[in-house]
Amino acid sequence: MENSSPIILAIDQGSGSTKALAINLKGEVLAQAEIKINTTFPQSGWVEQDPEEIWRSVVEASIQITKAHKISAVGLSIQRESVLFWEHTTGKALTNVITWQDRRASDLAEESAKNAARVKEITGLELDPMFSALKAQWLLENQNFTGDICIGTIDSWIAFKLGAGHIIESGSASRTQLLDIKTGQWSQELLDLFKVDLKTLPRVCSSDEKHICTNMQELGLTNAVPLSGIMGDSHAALFAHKGWISGNFKATFGTGTSLMGLTETKPQTIAWSLGEKITRAAEANILSTGSTLVWLAQLLDTTPEDLANLAPESTEQVEIVPAFNGLGAPWWDREATAIIAGLTRGSSRADLAAAALRSTAAQINDVLEDFAKSGIKIDSLYADGGGARNQYLMQMLADLSGKKIKSSQLLELSAFGAAMVAAIGAGLATISDIERNEMKYDEFTPHLSDEEREKALKTWRKAVQQSRMKG
Predict the structure, then answer these.
(1) What is the C-alpha to C-alpha distance for residues 201 and 424, in angstroms, rounded to an integer?
(2) For position 183, which CATH number holds?
(3) Cα–Cα distance, 457 to 250 (Å, whole number)
(4) Residue 471: what pLDDT?
(5) Has residue 213 been placed in a domain?
(6) 183 confidence band (pLDDT: 50, 70, 90)
(7) Global pTM value
(8) Whole domain around residue 60: which residue ranges?
(9) Per-residue pLDDT for 79 more than 60?
(10) How many domains does the chain fold into?
(11) Can you spell out the DSSP letters for 48-117?
């Protein structure tokens, strides 16, 4: 590929901000812009964002890139499992974005518990309010909607605003808990269960479908520039790690952490669909990792960065089980409560900081052990996202898991993955072209013996047990 390599506008819409990047086909990031977005907590367990603020952030970040670079295609990476409603005719939002962290539908989950096994059989997912279906049901039961409404996720909303119509990418659709993971289409059985009308849902499309939009001028582009790649953030990161290569499993560190790798044995998600060929994956979602450090920083009136720098000074092992809204994978225990264990009069801020980071590493190890029970063998784990830049955390993860950790030197891996899918969708590159791009990693190998590792995990396992005690 030449120096005049086409440039992709990669839009990465995440929980805390929207980023826009100019990325060429060699994988070089030429420019980047970021717009922070707000999150509100109207009631206990409720987590919302303003859809119009999200749209404005997409526009503002993108224009900073498009005014300086000639763009050949647009790729979109998004936070998943959200839901919002809007009017089809006017495009006016009727609700806020109910994010993946929102737990308001927990009571509905309890009421539907008898259907949990069937839901998992169709979708691959544990019945949980993290996913879009229960949140959509809650909105339908608690608000009065009339007329021609659209129900969708963040990718649906942004694509609609760009003039691509009412669509949803297949991997994103698989995270709604309304999609049949075998067929890649909406399940009428699940729509009946969650009381969602099929005509309100978007058309499911391939990850690399080429959309000719009618409103690209909002981004400073002409309508000739296609939206040709859409993926959920975790899926895009796996794609960037060349996840189609057998055995490549990754952990994406953010507010929570997603572990994902391709498999056709009891898959939990659609990784992507290229040319309408569906590729499935095993996935585990940990609810609180990066957000644990943020919570602790707020409690101690400091910053997450300062705590992360302080953690290596820890001299005592304290455990934090961050079950602020229950525990996600591998436990999926909505009743678990957050606890701090092992405190003494000598415990320090450094010990608490180390405990917050250790909770991330220990939860990931719990998932890896659960994968092993299902016959999924992982020797090396690829890492990306903000937490992957923390060498102390990466070494702790290697020590507690006994695995080699390969941390990406490229921080914005979700955006990179979305850009590469967009290049494929626009006919600018092939999988073979992308496979030739050389990714750079920092490697961390375990320093603990098996005996030392088990000793370090013993107090964590005891703390998790206490967190999950009922009554």
Answers:
(1) 26
(2) 3.30.420.40
(3) 22
(4) 56
(5) yes
(6) very high
(7) 0.86
(8) 7-233
(9) yes
(10) 1
(11) EE-HHHHHHHHHHHHHHHHTTS--SEEEEEE--S-BEEEETTT--BSS-EE-TT--TTHHHHHHTGGGHH
